[in-house]
Design goal:
Length: 607
């Protein structure tokens, strides 16, 4: 995703001219209803150039006639059952704005305190409200009782009252842009505190708090994009044909997300890699003295296509969770319920990965790819359940091909959304009782290793338990006769919804050229599937650590990845990958920040 196009080239389709050849007569009639081209262009222009503005306001007052035109535009918004649920409270008094600014500041500080490292630093540079910098503030409210019982449409969808007030905001925002006024929407409020300050009757809610004023200039794109906080998703990701998931723009073939990411994956940029190597040699340190970190930073440059590459922060750990039918074979000493219980622990911030992520300044999200329990909604939980646990692969395929593709696609979408949300580094995590058995089967299928070599104790199986694991893997391999040239088939045979979703996550990271740090044996097994689908995806992968699980060493050797940390970890969750995050960030920062012999005036070693 590149920088926002300039308003003149905004992604809106240009209105086409009239009287095209071979036009159907009905179409000609419809065209007669359309605005002339210049007026249509003005409509699309104001839509493209409307901005949320928070800086560069001028002190000039807003004349009443301008304000009235904006309010009249807002008042012409559509509303459910024509209920017109909005009211507009226009605030200019400085003392009142100071009280309101204090309310916003409290909530903003609370929000900032909960942000992980890189986000917190980035937030400190953002301006999120302009209550005192603008001459006029407008609170837009909603009265969801207006119009009485028979308000058409609100009956079945009460929230449409609020939607209607939001449309009034949108009209006001567009009119303001056309008038040359910037508007910023501030939502850092406890809604009831603000309602009390505005003396709203109890049945009214505050929908929006807007700060308006003349500005020096309008930015070419969202301020949050310019600051790297978040990026615009391509419109094609948001348009579906007929049913959710059949993505694609009208007139174009539906886009298969898996095929799309595979097609987008490219080898590393050799020029950027060479530039990184060359810069490493000019940096004020003996050549090669940063060891493996020199390779890491060169890989990051190759992936980014530029030297120096961006420092991979902020980072997000996505813990993919799923349950496994093979658990029935006695392959884990832990009951299956532990998967859901640990998900709750991750969401409550109580697991080891949470502690490590807090230390490293990374965000943690949990993806329910296929937990065999209903999970309550919670902040940080991404519900993407493909099934309630896989089937037992010793008896039949763990999942259908369609489920494997659905899980791959879910992983792709999680990666895309985390990158659009501004993350520059993705970190794999996993949770699934019995998933080391599924991993061992996948590793055997992709690398040709033997079950006895790659099947380990996982989360504490004793000798008998391990023997049952080896036997389950043997049975599965004999039953499915996996073909590594059919990676989707291999994933379907042995599963793990979390393995398939992780494979999609890795592929999307590679397609978006975002580094992805692999954790242990589960992520490794998923990476084998991902690289079987797109060999160049390996260029986006960094091996966070080497787990003691024997299949992991085999996987890393097969993928030719060197682990950054070796601490005999065997926990999963993303813990080993998170530990490697500061090493990778340091490697990138060194390439970017360290002086060169010429720039620092330091004498180079004699040739
Ligand atoms: C419902 C809503 C609430 C928002 N709240 C805030 C806010 O509290 N602080 C802020 O800085 N921006 C806020 N924004 C502005 C968005 O960050 C902004 O619309 C987005 O980054 C896209 O940029 P653009 O409006 O310039 O296209 C809000 C926007 C909406 C629609």
């Amino acid at each position: 995703m590149k920088q926002e196009p300039s308003p003149a080239r905004a992604e809106n389709p240009r209105p086409s001219g009239r009287g095209e050849v071979n036009e159907h007569p009905d179409q000609q009639n419809h065209r007669a209803q359309a605005y002339p081209e210049d007026q249509r262009a003005a409509v699309y222009r104001v839509i493209a150039e409307r901005r949320d503005v928070r800086q560069g306001f001028l002190p000039a007052p807003v004349p009443a006639d301008v304000l009235n035109r904006m309010l009249a535009a807002a008042h012409q918004a559509p509303s459910v059952g024509f209920s017109q649920p909005w009211d507009f409270i226009v605030i200019t008094d400085r003392a009142q704005r100071e009280r309101i600014a204090a309310l916003a500041r409290r909530n903003r500080d609370g929000y900032a305190a909960g942000l992980p490292g890189a986000r917190s630093r980035a937030f400190a540079t953002l301006k999120v409200e302009s209550i005192l910098d603008t001459p006029v503030n407008i609170a837009v409210t909603c009265d969801a009782t207006r119009g009485g019982r028979h308000t058409l449409g609100r009956h079945s969808q009460p929230e449409t009252a609020v939607f209607s007030s939001v449309l009034a905001v949108s009209n006001l925002w567009l009119a303001a842009r056309a008038e040359g006024l910037g508007v910023g929407w501030v939502s850092f409020f406890d809604e009831r505190e603000l309602a009390a300050e505005l003396r709203l009757p109890g049945h009214l809610t505050v929908v929006a708090y807007l700060c308006a004023g003349y500005v020096r200039e309008f930015g070419p794109g969202p301020e949050l994009q310019a600051s790297g906080w978040a990026r615009r998703r391509p419109v094609a990701w948001a348009v579906h044909a007929g049913e959710f998931g059949r993505r694609g723009l009208p007139g174009a073939e539906p886009v298969d997300a898996l095929a799309e990411v595979i097609a987008a994956i490219r080898p590393p940029d050799a020029v950027a890699v060479a530039a990184a190597r060359e810069r490493q040699d000019r940096m004020t340190k003996p050549p090669g003295s940063l060891g493996v970190l020199e390779d890491v930073s060169a890989s990051l440059a190759g992936l980014a296509g530029e030297c120096p590459p961006p420092v991979p922060e902020p980072a997000a750990v996505a813990i993919f969770a799923g349950d496994h039918g093979v658990h029935a074979q006695g392959v884990s000493p832990w009951p299956q319920e532990v998967t859901a219980q640990m998900v709750a622990n991750f969401l409550a911030g109580g697991a080891v990965v949470n502690a490590f992520a807090a230390q490293a300044g990374a965000e943690v999200v949990v993806v329910d790819a296929g937990v065999a329990a209903d999970l309550e909604p919670a902040p940080g939980l991404l519900p993407r359940k493909i099934g309630r646990g896989t089937a037992d692969f010793t008896q039949g395929p763990a999942m259908t091909r369609a489920q494997a593709v659905a899980a791959l696609t879910a992983g792709i979408e999680v990666a895309r959304d985390l990158v659009a949300a501004g993350n520059r580094c993705l970190v794999t995590g996993d949770m699934g009782i019995a998933n080391t058995t599924a991993s061992a089967a996948l590793i055997c299928a992709f690398t040709g290793s033997s079950p006895a070599v790659v099947t380990g104790p996982g989360a504490g199986a004793d000798a008998a338990g391990r023997a049952r694991k080896v036997e389950a893997v043997r049975l599965g391999l004999a039953l499915h006769q996996p073909d590594p040239a059919d990676p989707v088939g291999v994933l379907a045979a042995f599963g793990g919804y979390e393995h398939a979703a992780l494979a999609g996550f890795i592929l999307a990271a590679a397609a978006l050229r975002a580094p992805v740090i692999l954790d242990g044996v589960i992520a490794g097994a998923a990476a084998l599937a991902a690289t079987a689908l797109a060999p160049d995806a390996v260029a986006a992968c960094l091996a966070g650590h080497r787990s003691t699980e024997p299949g992991h060493a085999a996987t890393l050797a097969f993928l030719k990845l060197r682990p950054l940390v070796e601490l005999d970890l065997r926990l999963g969750e993303g813990t080993g990958a998170v530990l490697a995050l500061p090493l990778i960030q340091s490697a990138a920062r060194a390439l970017r920040d360290v002086a060169t012999f010429d720039s620092a005036g330091v004498s180079d070693k004699k040739a």
